[in-house]
Amino acid sequence: VNTRAAAPQSHEQLRYARLLEWGARVGLWLLVGSFALYMTGILPSHVSPQRLPELWSLPVHSYLQLSGAPVGWNWLSQLTHGDMAALSGVAWMAACSVPCLLSLLPLAVSRQRGDTALAALCVAEVLVIAVAASGWITGGH
Amino acid sequence: VRPRQAIFGSALLLAATPALAGMASTPAMPWWGWPIALFLACFVMGIVAVPAGIGGGTLFVPIVGSFFPFHLDFVRGAGLLVALASALAAGPVLLRTGLASLRLALPLALVASTSSIGGALLGLALPARAVQMMLGALILGIVALMFASKRSEFPAVPKPDALSQSLSMHGVFIDGATGRTTQWHVHRTVSGLLVFTGIGVLAGMFGIGAGWANVPAMNLLMGAPLKVAAGSSGLVLSLVDSSAAWVYLNKGAVLPMIVVPSVVGMMLGARIGARLLDVLRGAAVRRLVIVVLLFAGVRTLLKGAGVWL
What pTM, to 2 d.p., does this model score? Predict the structure, then answer.
């Protein structure tokens, strides 16, 4: 990307970019680091890697029945298992846009006339991600 | 690297993707062979995705779903995360350079991420064969779109509509290649929001990156400059795939053994692909990708119909 001729960007866009950069970087390292703990056997696994080839060709409901793997947020209570710890990186990546959106709220409400459209869009998007994450309508709990 | 050698090399690598999966499917294959084969396949996909101008997430589900033994539920979950990781990694640079516009992306992402939850739930509830057949048809549709799609660098927008103005969906873009400064705004915002509602359903249901649909919708329908549409598409994806990824995570359809090698392979491959951008002939790589997608689409369709398992 040629950055030499880039137009100056708004405060909100730059703030979002800065937080997103950190979020994505931490998420990727968390994903790779926790996976390394899983693969090296430093942490025990809930479903052993040796058993996975007989399970991963099954639909998810059959996989859950046979493996006893947790659904919803129950993986959080099993973070001492390598395969569950590896989900923390996934969850981080799926959530790291939320602080970026929330960080725009002070900018949106502090302006002289207020930028209610931006504030409303950010809050609504955070709510959508929160509803998806909660498992409330997805039946994750 | 000479262009011909590079094209030949990438052709060989892409053609090797099913072969890698075939190698791994031998009964004597140890369990650890799978993540290695997946990493290599995704590395190849990452290399060709950039010069072909297609998101790695769009290649992932058809190819891995066709040539690896993983159930489509897990492939779709991994596909979403591959697209999400790529979008998150590219987002900050695109935002800083003005190639992505937060104001343009946010309203579209809001409707698409809402509908992606429904799409994800629908995809996990429908019989696998039905989803597979629909996915096959969708891939063939994407191939047709890649053949026929027109693009407009700077579409004419005679007058921005009231909704886009109230949402401040406009900006200034300086093209790094030409130095040209463009004040852009968009129109047909309601139609755009409706189209993005459908795109969200497809993204959630099939776990497929939706850049192939985002860019024409923003560029041709709403009138955003092509580069702004392409950059903002990544930002939309990062939000849409976040919502849908939570559904797959909550339903237990995310296997780190499939996700991590795929994400890392695709991101490393994309770095190589970006460096090869100057030496590869984009049109030739694009034709190659179209052929592979066509093959994967037909195979997915026939797999769903129970004809070619």
Answer: 0.88
